[in-house]
From TrEMBL:
Taxonomic source organism: Pedobacter helvus
InterPro entries: DMFA2_C (IPR046540)
Domain N,N-dimethylformamidase beta subunit-like C-terminal intervals: 106-315
Descriptive protein name: N,N-dimethylformamidase beta subunit family domain-containing protein
Domain of life: Bacteria
Keywords for the protein's UniProt record, in alphabetical order: Membrane, Transmembrane, Transmembrane helix
Membrane-spanning ranges: 6-30
Length: 448
């Protein structure tokens, strides 16, 4: 009798779990074909002044379409981020614009267009568009865009990690890390499988990396040297760009979309990947491989590289595998992210003293300073770090982080016609602005 009861309970449990899985799949399919067009929008602390643009990437000469939500007359300002932020355009007396907080899970917001911004006279670079009301001293909300060149004029291309911007944007209740759109019961089967509910991450929405960004002051673009422990991802890319401007190193800015679909980037002598280049499509990996075979020189001033898979669609990116193929990533970059050492910070120790990257660096250790700080500690090796593995053939470790656990493996590989350098650390890119020896290392790479 007890055995029969046990079997009956097991059958009921299996049936309940199967029903839950089936309902989750049906629910996901409905969301995928967009039968639900107004899911629950994220509720953030009262901040009615927000804006977004129709794209994150514009070519010089294209018109930026700007969509604004404001309860009070406002001013819209456009800045380029150089050594300082420079005002390039200003639009005053923007009238009250109240838009519904409906959010389409695939297409994003559909607010009324407020103004257009002409880019014909603007140079390639990273721009922020800010909004403030008449009673505010400075802007409290910013939206970042990348302006790519209409025609190549330099030999250096820098890639903004725009897929990372999208992956962390939780406006509308959905990022790759936050899900307030799907009911908890429908997330259970995915959690049991160690996965998240597949997500479309559209471009057309204000950038909100954390529901409390505005209240906590995470839109601080006052000074490039300010600490940015919790800053948004576009803000984290500013220090490396400021370093290039500071040293009169001409460059042109591109995006992850360009890395996937713009063959013009193959004509540059050097590429730099900035800060946190985590989310890659198959096309992006193919373009990097092609560039290396062509004899290109690559500087990966980043960590947690090529770690998650995405697909592009017309309105943004769609999440794929949460962990990319380690072999493919390592063969391209020499290392792969692991969680050990997460959030720790430290300097590097030079392993290959005679490497040209360390010319002029007289100390054994370097990279003690960074704009990143965690629990009062700074360093160029840290936050998230990548390490070598059994697929790192042809790469040599030229320096290693001094982190007690999970140090970054700074690696280098000479190819037939070019080379690839990988700092394997998120914190490295910002350190070049404040650490003398990291600056020397970067200049050695850029002048080689």
């Amino acid at each position: 009798m007890n055995i029969n009861k046990l079997l009956a309970n097991m059958i009921l449990s299996v049936f309940a779990l199967s029903t839950l899985v089936l309902l989750s799949l049906i629910y996901y399919y409905i969301r995928r074909v967009n039968l639900i067009v107004t899911p629950k929008a994220i509720k953030f602390k009262h901040h009615p002044q927000t804006l977004y643009t129709d794209k994150l990437r514009y070519v010089q000469g294209e018109t930026i379409e700007c969509y604004v939500n404001t309860d009070l007359p406002s001013t819209i300002s456009v800045y380029i981020l150089k050594e300082e932020k420079h005002l390039v355009q200003c639009y005053e007396n923007i009238p009250v614009c109240r838009n519904q907080n409906y959010y389409h899970p695939k297409n994003g917001c559909s607010w009324s267009k407020t103004l257009t911004i002409d880019t014909a006279t603007l140079e390639s670079g990273l721009y922020i568009i800010g909004i403030k009301t008449e009673d505010q001293v400075k802007e409290s909300f910013f939206h970042a865009i990348a302006l790519v060149p209409k025609q190549q004029k330099t030999k250096l291309a820098v890639f903004a990690s725009t897929n990372t911007w999208l992956a962390y944007n939780c406006y509308g209740g959905k990022s790759n890390y936050l899900d307030q759109q799907n009911h908890t019961i429908f997330k259970i089967p995915f959690k049991l499988m160690g996965k998240v509910v597949p997500a479309y991450l559209p471009t057309k929405r204000p950038h909100l990396q954390n529901p409390n960004d505005v209240a906590n002051g995470h839109y601080n673009y006052d000074n490039v040297y300010d600490s940015f422990e919790f800053a948004q991802h576009p803000r984290r890319e500013w220090p490396l760009l400021a370093f290039l401007y500071q040293n009169n190193l001409n460059f042109e800015l591109y995006t992850d979309w360009d890395l996937a679909y713009n063959p013009e980037i193959l004509n540059y002598d050097k590429w730099i990947f900035n800060n946190h280049s985590e989310y890659w499509s198959a096309e992006m990996k193919g373009m990097l491989k092609k560039y290396m075979e062509k004899g290109g020189k690559v500087i990966i001033a980043s960590g947690n590289n090529l770690y998650r898979d995405v697909e592009f669609y017309n309105e943004g990116i769609k999440m794929g595998n949460q962990v990319s193929d380690m072999e493919i990533t390592t063969k391209l970059t020499g290392s792969f992210f692991t969680e050990d050492g997460y959030l720790t910070l430290a300097s590097y120790k030079i392993i290959e003293r005679n490497h040209f990257a360390f010319e002029g660096i007289t100390t054994t250790h370097f990279g003690e300073k960074s704009l990143y700080s965690y629990q009062g500690v700074t360093g160029a090796s840290g936050i998230e770090t990548d390490k070598i593995n059994y697929h790192s053939d042809g790469f040599e470790i030229i320096a290693v982080g001094n982190n007690a656990q999970g140090p970054a493996h700074m690696v280098f590989k000479q190819t037939e016609k070019g080379w690839i350098f990988n700092a394997s650390s998120i914190s490295f890119a910002n350190s070049v602005l404040v650490d003398e020896n990291c600056a020397k290392l970067m200049l050695n790479l850029l002048k080689n």
